Amino acid sequence: MSPPGSVVACAYSEVGHACLSELLEIGADVRMVITHADAPGERTWFGSVAELARAAGVPVLEPEDVNDADTARAIASAEPDLLYSFYFRQMIRPHVLEIPRLGALNLHGSLLPRYRGRAPVNWALVHGEVETGVTLHYMDPKPDHGEIVARARVAIDRDDTALTLTRKLATAGRELLREMHPRLLAGTAPRVAQEHRESSYFGGRRPADGEIDWSAPAETVRNLVRAVTDPWPGAFTAFRGDKLLVWWAETRDGSAEPGVVIIGEDGVPRVGTGDGLLELVRVGGADQSALDAARWARDIGLQSGERLG
């Protein structure tokens, strides 16, 4: 078991819940948890950090801004040795980062310095990466920029979605934290400067970024689909004057004009792309319900030659 060590944790979402669970399990002295109030209408498919903390008797704050004066004073009053950020959605400013005695660290969902910024899981899938990971690093004023303590690699399988990959990263984050938390307290953890020349940065993603470009290769479209499929808002295209969501798809050999539908003898709809065909597997309407694509095509009388997009 690790030495206690006083901790303030800023945490949210699946990875935040997993890492807070790990700190509590190894006996860390978690004195305060700062998290986000769930946004109205947001799908909270992940465990509640606030509920986990309260069940363990840990005080919880849900400030609009972690950097405001009242929150900074509350953090200082907890006298933390370490401050952790686990998938927390706000940049933590220098006057807060300077409070913990041994430093402030973030767990980022990529192998830094690649994929700095927001939504690294989704971006890695969009770009067809076959490997990603988590990085525990010291925070400084620039996003995902500080010295690295440790990284853990995670393979991306062809059928991984943002959900399954996030859960892999949550497990990897727990394991990394279990190993490095005692070393951080003992002062024996590494501090390695990032290779900033190798960095890449990506901003946040919006639901509108899920629009399918049928002129892209089929593999590229498939990667977009799995990057934003349920519980994310989904990839979409225009169809018969409405919005069609594509929840799952597969690449197939063949060719057709981009966006043009081909109905095979099996009744399965396939769509032309810039390179190859995309077979629709699960689709849905504006209500986001997922339907078997072949049954959907039959029920609406979809014909070869119709166009998406």
Written overview of the protein:
By secondary structure, this protein is of the alpha/beta class. It has two domains: 6-202, Rossmann fold (3-Layer(aba) Sandwich), CATH 3.40.50.170; 207-300, Formyl transferase, C-terminal domain (Methionyl-tRNA Fmet Formyltransferase, Chain A, domain 2, Roll). It contains eight helices and 15 strands. The chain has helices spanning 13-25, 49-55, 69-77, 94-97, 120-126, 162-186, 218-228, 293-300; strands spanning 6-11, 29-34, 60-61, 82-86, 104-108, 116-117, 131-138, 148-155, 201-202, 235-239, 242-252, 261-263, 269-272, 277-284, 291-292. Strand 1 (6-11), helix 1 and strand 2 (29-34) form a beta-alpha-beta unit. Helix 5 runs antiparallel to helix 7. It is elongated, with a radius of gyration of 22 Å. The model has no long low-confidence stretch (mean pLDDT 95).
The CATH class of the largest domain = Alpha Beta
The class by helix and strand makeup works out as alpha/beta
Number of strands: 15
Structure annotation, total helices: 8
List the domain count as a whole number. 2
Beta-strand residue fraction: 15-25%
Shape: elongated
Instruction: Assign the CATH topology of the largest domain.
Output: Rossmann fold
Can you give the mean pLDDT?
Answer: 95
Task: Using the 3D structure, state the CATH architecture of the largest domain.
Answer: 3-Layer(aba) Sandwich
The biggest beta sheet is recorded as: 7 strands, mixed
The helix content, as a percent range, equals: 25-40%
The named CATH superfamily of the largest domain: Formyl transferase, N-terminal domain
Provide the succession of SSEs: EHEHEHEHEEHEEHEHEEEEEEH
Overall radius of gyration: 22 Å
Distance between the termini: 56 Å
pLDDT < 50 runs, ≥5 residues = none
Give, in spatial order, the strands making up the sheet with the most strands.
3-2-1-4-5-7-8
